[in-house]
Every structure is written in structure tokens, then in C-alpha cells.
Amino acid sequence: MTTFIVGAHGQIGQLLTKQLAATGETVLAGIRDTKQADALSALGGQPRQFDLTALPQEQAAAFKDVDNVVFTAGSGGATGYDGTLEIDLDGAVKTMIAAEQAGVKRYVIVSALYADQRDKWAQTGIEPYYVAKYYADEWLQHRTQLNYTILRPGALTNDAGTGKISLQPTLASSKKIARADVAAAIVAVLSKPQASGQIYDLVSGTTPIEQAF
């Protein structure tokens, strides 16, 4: 199987590249800057320059002969809200369109916990980010025929992964999750047909990741 990671040089993207390559899968690591190529090669990925501001038909060429597309990209806090709309919303939607144009069936996106709960957005202090995540998720569910999985992790940390999560944040003691565990969850759902068409909230917990889905 061949998986294209959009945003492979991000923190989750790098962890995912390493974890997925370790399973023997072919990993195409989508990067914005060719200077990032060596880092992704060292993790087992095959770097591919990829422009999230390009038109979908241009992006589709990068998805030729790809089985899975995983969207882990994010504009980051330094780009301002314009960047959030361009990357986290429109960039995500364009990759969905491109995936369908290229004949890709499986699509996994990293969203955010509470992206579907407007009443919680204001308290986060980054409401435009949640707006972008909400509408990207909506497009994926209702405007595509992709076999999607939406992962909505809680607050991300750089702690070592525990290999255990909870899909029920209301019952969990923490609303945080290690980026390494998010990457491991992506690897897990890619191998499980029953995860298609599903939305999962993810926080640190006590259930082994392989058994959670």
C-alpha cells in the first residue's frame, strides 16, 4: 500500500512517516520546501514536493497510484487567520477534491477535539482554527465519496507515546494526547476497514491503540 502524507514535515507528519514506514508501507512524504527532503528520507519516507496553495488538478498528479491520503498539515500560529483559512480549510478541501480526481479511495484527516461543538470554540482562544476544522470535516463527510476517517485529538503534547488512548473524552481524566499516539492511531485506522466513515475523538487513555478501533 502507498500512503501520501500531506504535511509530512509537521510534528505529527514526521512521527507518522517513521511509524508507517516501519510497517513496510510505501510512504510518500509531501513537503512544502525541498530543504525538508533529507529529514523525511531519514525517517523512511520518499519526499515529494507538494503545494497546498495549488489547484486541485495540479495536486491530483501527486496522488497518482496512491492508496491512502493522510492530511496532517496545519498553518501554524505564525501565519495568522488568513493562513488558517488557506491551509487548514481550503488546503484540506482541495486535497479531498484532488484525491477523488486521482481515484484515491481512502482519506484520513487530523481534525481537533470539539471541532463539531461550536459552544466550546470561544473558550479555546483560537476560534478561527475550529471554524476551519469544522467546515473541512463537513466537506469531507457530505461533499465527497471518499472512505474517510476523521480523527479529533485533544490538546497535543510532545510527551512520549503511551500506546493507549480513549475514544470517550468525557470519561477520560485528561483531554491531552501525545503526538506520537495520534500518529499511531493513524497507522491503526489505515489498516482497519471498519474505521472508514467514522469520526473518533482521541485523548490519552487506557485502551491499547490497536484495540481501540
UniProtKB/TrEMBL annotation:
Q: Which CDD domains match?
A: SDR_a5
Q: Where does the record place the NAD(P)-binding domain?
A: 7-193
Determine the domain of life of the protein's source.
Bacteria
UniProt xrefs under InterPro entries: NAD(P)-bd_dom (IPR016040), NAD(P)-bd_dom_sf (IPR036291)
Question: Which SUPFAM superfamilies does the protein's record reference?
Answer: NAD(P)-binding Rossmann-fold domains
Q: Coiled coil: which residue ranges? A: none
An example Pfam family from this entry, by short name, is NAD_binding_10
Which protein is depicted?
Putative nucleoside-diphosphate-sugar epimerase
Q: What is the lineage of its organism?
A: Bacteria, Bacillati, Bacillota, Bacilli, Lactobacillales
